[in-house]
Structures are given as C-alpha cells and as structure tokens.
Design brief:
Chain lengths: 72, 195
Amino acid sequence: MLTQLFHGKFFKHLLGSSLILVIVMVAYDLLTFFIPLVKLSFTCGLIFLAVIDIILIVLKLLTIRTNQQFRP
Amino acid sequence: MNKELKHLLQLSIGLFLILILFFNIYYYFRADNFITGSSKASQVITSNRLRAPNINRPSEKWSYPKLTTKDPLELVALKQQNKIIVVNTATHKAIYTINAQINIEPQAKPLHVLKARGQEIYHIVGAKHTTAKNWLGISKGHYIEAPVTGLDGQRVPHRLTKINATKNTILVSKPDAKWLQSIPQSTQLVIKEGK
C-alpha cells in the first residue's frame, strides 16, 4: 500500500496543493488587516499545513485500501 | 489541471476553512484574550495590525486615528501583555493598540492623564539619570514617555522589551509617545495585570 503511494505521483500533487495552500494562508493573513478574523502565526500555519497533509495522506491510504479490497 | 491535484486542492482548502472556523470560534470564546468595555472584533483588528515592538516605529502597521476633544477615551494598560489599548468608550471600540513597557503596578483606582506634557524629561536615580522624549504626565507622579538614554548614558536598544525599566513610567515608541500627547486631559488610564 505504501509502496504504491511512493511510486505514484501522489506526493508531487500533495506538494503542489500544499504550495497553493500556503498562498491561501498568506492571503488570509493579509485579509485579517481589514476583517476581524484571528491572525495565523507562522507556527500555527505550519501546524495547520502538517495536519491537513496528514489527513490527506490518511484519506489516500484509505482509498488505496478500499480499491484493493474491491479488486476482482 | 490533473484530476488528483484538483481533488487534493479542494480537500485541502476545505479542511483549511474548517480549521480556521474552529480556530476563530475557540479564540473568540476565550474570555482572557479580551478586555471588557470594548468589542472583541475591534480588539482583534487592532492586534492584527501590531508590528514587533520598536522604539523608532509606530506600534501598528496603520495610520493613527485622529482624535478630537469630544472623543471619550480610556487607556487600558495590560502589564503582562506589554500593551496599551486605546478605547473609545462611546462606541465601545478599541481604536489603537500600543506596544509598551509598563513599569507601574496595577492600581485599585484608575489614574488620569494630566495637562502636563513636554519634549524632554530626566529621571534621576542616585548619581545617574535616564532621559526620555515626548512625555505625558499621569496622576500620582507617573509618566508615559519614549526612552532615549539609560542609566549608563548610552542610547537604549531598539527593542522595547530589552530596555531597562524606569520606575513609575510606561515606555512606548517615539511616534506613539508623540501621538499620545494628543490624548485629552483627564482621560482615564486603567492598569491591569493582563494574562
């Protein structure tokens, strides 16, 4: 399951989506100048990124497992 | 765009928005993040605009609000957080937050801004003295001022938190001290411990 994950393009796509998410976080931080939303500190942003990436990896592993179970 | 990348992007942005929502709800519900007497939203906005404490720069990355003699203001000094929040008591909004080093103990009764203000001031400690600029007199012999030199005669560091304490004073940056001189006489100054 893990080897399938490492051989595919999943981690490249994950990196791409993480980079776009960083841009979204920066845009959010700029928005907090004008809107009363709580500003994200650098550490908080990193933690959020790590949590989201872990959730995405877990979801992908579950998808691979489900596909393997239902393979004829 | 690749299908997997598209799905990953949608999921990650969706998760980010959910996390941000819970983060904001948690922050707003924690009472010790806010002072009473002004709206939470205004306090969040003014603290979002704060820059790192520097004696040569204004505290916020924003222009100073224009003050009129009719604005009923209150200064709330939070000792542990090293901040002064300027509150408009009529609209119950925080209008500015100032990075400060507060060297006055919390008082039972509020202090008041006096008419006395000036360009330079000296505090004598034994045979040595400290100098400061743009001072504002506060009741019971206290001052709000911008430090220039320390007891050693040397210019103070740029970082407000690294400056040695001067008793009975609140130390702020030079631009902040100049702006605070426009605060009307008899404005209340409440000093709290903070967190």
